[in-house]
Write a structure and sequence with these properties.
single chain, four-stranded antiparallel β-sheet, 262 residues, 2 helices
């Protein structure tokens, strides 16, 4: 990514052998995992298979460094693949963390750049986020008094201080903290679910169908729907500083619901 997060549509492959610090990424010409380009990862002359995954489908560097080495976003798949990983260096050796589980090999989850904060990637499958400038993996939960509220919903936005995140469910918006569980819950404005969000789903489906007719490689209408919804959320809601923290505000958003009554 070299300085900024990359959108889903950005190229995800390294066409020829390329060096990122002490990492050497190149086509794995001896791969026997079927069609499609596979990659090998070599770190300081030693082959590296993240979390044991032998099928590496794409590699992207991000701006963050770990022990002076570029951190990498890697997508793995196959029988031993796990999805989207973040690779850093710890104590002189590569270390991988899972960012998003594998759902569909054809549509890897590279994360969606948050509008206005493109350095933050949102991973809907796991509900996590990644700050590509620092390499910090951001995770949040919706616990309240030891009870987990579900469904989680889709991750829409992370506050400017990276301590809160907004999740969109069918009827509500949940604001979750990183350490203190559920921070707030809001009723989703009536015109959003049956109006604007429904229109987004229809538009995503129409675009995917048209892309198929135009001979464009398969487009995941669900992934497109998610990206369009995140863009919509950023236009309608935003974070506002209040009493040393951040509060979600926006058109049609009423007062927070009493958490004890959820």
């Amino acid at each position: 990514m070299a300085g900024s997060a990359l959108a889903q549509a950005s190229p995800s492959v390294v066409p020829e052998a390329k060096r990122f610090g002490d990492f050497l990424i190149g086509p794995n010409k001896e791969s026997f995992y079927g069609p499609g380009t596979q990659y090998s990862i070599v770190f300081r002359s030693q082959g590296y298979w993240p979390l044991g995954a032998r099928e590496v489908n794409g590699v992207r560097p991000i701006k963050a460094l770990s022990e002076g080495q570029p951190m990498l976003l890697v997508v793995t798949s196959g029988y031993d693949g796990v999805g989207t990983l973040l690779i850093g260096v710890q104590n002189g050796a590569p270390l991988a963390r899972i960012l998003s589980p594998l759902k569909d090999k054809k549509f890897p989850d590279w994360g969606v750049p948050q509008p206005g904060r493109e350095e933050v990637l949102l991973f809907a499958e796991s509900g996590r986020a990644l700050d590509t400038h620092t390499g910090e993996v951001l995770w949040f939960d919706t616990r309240f008094k030891a009870k987990e509220y579900g469904p989680w919903g889709a991750l829409m936005s992370v506050s400017p201080d990276n301590r809160l995140a907004a999740y969109l469910t069918f009827r509500q918006i949940l604001v979750a903290g990183r350490e203190d569980g559920l921070d707030a819950a809001y009723q989703l404005p009536a015109d959003a679910n049956v109006g604007e969000l429904a229109d987004i789903s229809k538009a995503a489906y129409v675009q995917a169908v048209q892309a198929h007719k135009d001979g464009v490689p398969s487009m995941d209408n669900h992934r497109l729907d998610r990206e369009m919804t995140i863009a919509w959320f950023a236009k309608r809601f935003h974070w506002k500083a209040k009493n040393g923290t951040w509060e979600l505000v926006g058109r049609g958003l009423g007062p927070a619901l009493p958490l004890s009554e959820r």
